[in-house]
């Protein structure tokens, strides 16, 4: 594993960051520092992850909130643990009930697409099982930012402004008023460099900390949430919240050129990244910047995604097992479909997403890969009045077609986009990695892992590298830094290439690798956002 600086023609001016006692990599500088602050007070990598995650609900509300879902991969004492803190659909949310509201598909905004949020339960569960500090300590930085305010960072300000302007023309009805009160209190979003604060958010975080999450699911906050949903005809109930708990799961993996690449099992889409790597693992790539390398990556991802969209939902509802989809026989069969020209697998067109990802590590060898999201930016647009709780809209991905594998059912977990990743070799951890951003995530995982393993790029260079995104059919979106001669060569192979005007939409990743010889941590952070690495 290459941890040293590496010349790369498209690298940003950022260098790899090194640390020994601890490291936190996030999309927001203040959130990364919050994690290190908690670590210096006696916390470990798990406590740091909780502190950063809670802070991000304040510091990056355009992507996540207290009403988010979450997933985590946690390396503790030589073993990797998986936590699925995605929520299920409400008991009364059925295909018939949604259609009775006049919908032929689950809507993107409003009360209807909201499923039970899992993030507060994830914080409490992680603290109880692996943390050294109580939530009252880990959530202090987040509470402070919410009470005292902070200046909005550049990328955050741009996304916030875009959302506020869109929502002015989209959100109609009393149920959306609390969103504008919370996030556009002066009639507009805070611009970069201006201070935003949320006393409601601070009070809610204090209550979550003091009750170890109980208030959100079985107490005062649960009462406020359920009352708001009942008032406006939503499905989410007090009982749905009370019955929820996160689930510890066994991570899934493929071995790619001697390294184990780990993901959370379905209902998450991490399986897609593993399927793509499995298809490519017997190919030999001599150069990263070669048309055949990009062509094979794209074709493998299209095959993996078309299968993933057809087969992935909550694991107990799947028609094919993870073992079947990750078998060498199946990968070989799918590999036979890759030829000289672009395929058209004709899957459903993936929508955009909004997510935060963070990675942490400490000197004891503990490491956390954590991801948290409202989905599609601010999520449902529903904020529970007086609480600052911004609710996700994960139910949007359910199908109202009863024959579809991801068909809506009560108390079912839907196909989920957010995926934390982890890399190991033999019995040694290499480290956590992730690329947030909706349906870009498994595509980003594949590209970052191949840049690391096949082409020996250090963490920062792997994140700086140009990215592509398969959209649908033969359509491929490339970022502004993508080499023009490669783009033209891919076009000649039948790919429909479109160059994006900005780097938005290509994911925002973080990486921490650990040197097994001396324990030194090496981190990279995304140049496509306000990313930051705090090291100790």
UniProtKB/TrEMBL annotation:
It comes from the Bacteria. Gene3D superfamilies: 1.10.246.230, 3.60.20.40. InterPro entries: GGT-like_enzyme (IPR052896), GGT_ssub_C (IPR043137), Ntn_hydrolases_N (IPR029055). This is Gamma-glutamyltransferase family protein. It comes from Alkalicoccus halolimnae.
